Amino acid sequence: MSFVLRCPNCGPREVTDFGFGGELIPRPRSQPSFRELNAYNYFRRNVAGVQREWWFHRSGCRVWFIAERDTRTNEVLWTARPSEVASDERGAEVAEPEGGRRR
After folding, report:
1. Which residue did the predictor score with more confidence, 60 or 26?
2. Has this prediction a pTM greater than 0.85?
């Protein structure tokens, strides 16, 4: 199913212009246990509903941003730059997705 996603820099674009980076989850503390690191890397909530996600505008400005999207309908509620989102719903600091980097 295709839908329109709004890049905070470039405006509305077809979702095929973007790369999905996964759910926005807090990173573990600086010295995580093996169990914490495993949970961070492999376990996702995968909710049927609204969740915050990382997206990368690969066919445009090449910048990572955050979107809040309903996974049942693909309705995008809002998008923002990481600096505009202080923390996720659990109060954890926003961190780049694995393998991602800001420019």
Report:
1. 60
2. no
